[in-house]
Request: fold
Amino acid sequence: MREQVVLYCDGGMLGPKNPSPEGVMWSVYADPPGAVMERGESREHHTNNEAEYLALKAALEYAQRNHPSARLTVRMDSLFVVNTYNGTWRLNGLPLRRLRQQCREVADRAITLEWRPRSELVKRVGH
Reply:
């Protein structure tokens, strides 16, 4: 039986504005709660949705490096990313389409991408 890995990811703004001239940040956590796996920042990306896609990409890259044959579930509070990645909603704008494509290229297997309410993510990731 293949290992099951559950990751939680979240992206956000650096600074109070969206889009932020200061850039974005993201975090990836594993189950059990609080196990920080990855953190990052980018000054090249500026919107909250870009931050969320970068969080997903970091989660997929972590899984590819550390759990290459595991069944993977990624949970996040971005309804936008979950629905545009899964194809339920249309995705407009070249920067976001590029980020989605990068995520799909990193996801070297079928993944389950699930939306979770912000309150659940706060319990898991602490912010």
